[in-house]
Every structure is written in C-alpha cells, then in structure tokens.
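LOG
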Amino acid sequence: GVVISITDQLDFGMFEIGSAVPRRELVLAMEKIGHIINGKKGTITIGGHTDARPFRSDTYDNWRLSTARAHSAYYMLVRGGVDESRITEVAGFAYRQPKIKS
C-alpha cells in the first residue's frame, strides 16, 4: 500500500503543543489529501503521534493526545470526501514510533 506521512517542521506544527485541534493549514492539506485518495482503492489506517517530551494536562497525556490527533485526521479525511467505511483503524502511538529519534 501507500504510506502518507505528514510531519511537523521546525517552523510549522500541525497542532499546537498539547492540542488535538488542527491548524487551518493542516485542515486544508488533509481535505486535499482526502480528495486525492478518494479516487484510489483500498483501506486506510490512521496513526497519531507525539514527540517524546513528557506531557500531561487535565485533558491529555501523550497517549490520549496522539489518539485524539489521529481522530482529528480521520474527521478531516472524511470531510475531504473519503468514505468512512474505508478507514479500518485509528490509533495513537504517543512517542513510541518516532519518525526521527530525538
């Protein structure tokens, strides 16, 4: 299958630190991605991640935050036209599967 990976940059974060509310730029990008993959076949899995900084608030820890971010991605893809029945997994990985080791 195809893997689409969207990663924060030094000058741009997809979410505010400690938040699962996506920035407008991410919403627009995810809608475009949704339109593109809507024309493709296959199932979709979504994984949410955080960095390795220890984090806990009244609402989230890294596990809950990564899961909430994955759910945000799910909703953005569906809003972009993806049939929700194609999405077979939405999971949070906290900092356990880093793309870049810190």
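LOG (cont.) second protein
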Amino acid sequence: MNTVTAEQLFQALQAMPMEERVRFFSLLAINAFRDQHAYQNLQDQQVFWHLDNDEFTAQEAADYLEVSIGTFRRYVYDGRIKPCSAPGITQLFATRNLKAFKHATHDVKLTLDGGKGKGKPN
C-alpha cells in the first residue's frame, strides 16, 4: 500500500493550480467531517483529556462551552450548571460536569433540527 505522508500531501497541494486547491478544500469541508458529533467528541478528548479532574472559572467554563459569559451565568442561575466549589467569591466548575452538559445540549440541538446541528426547530 502506498501511503502519502502529510509533507507529501502538502507539497502536492502547493503544486496544484488555484482552482483545484479551492475544489479540494471544498470537498474536504463537505465530506471530511460528516459526523460532527463524533468529531466534537474526538476533539474534546484530544484537547481537554488532561483536564478531566480539573476545575474551570466561570469565564473558562463559558469559553469551553462556546457561550458568552452572560449565557453561562444564566445557566448557573437557572440551576442547569452547578459550581463544584466556591473558594472566596470565585465559583469553580468541574470539567467533567461541563463536558456532560456540553454533550447533552449538543444532543438536544441535533434532535431539534433533525441532525443538522443548528439547534432550532424547523
């Protein structure tokens, strides 16, 4: 089996005419990550694996969930997310709980839009 290395692929891409590069990246964007939920799970595991037993501040948690700090504060106020500890005036949030919340809300979005990932009913 003839395997192409990342460097060889990059060199081949550089040698392509511009129109073919555009076509290649369009095909890649359309086809490479069809199962976005599986891709998101993989990405979370690759990026945040070392934080499984860690705690985030409110801003870090909002960044992780990809929401504004205002939205995150509403989640906390509504009881959808609970702090795991509060040393002084700073609330800390367990990364395991945030990960579960993120995946649960992602699953709801997929259900609402039939798997399109937009989160709004049709």
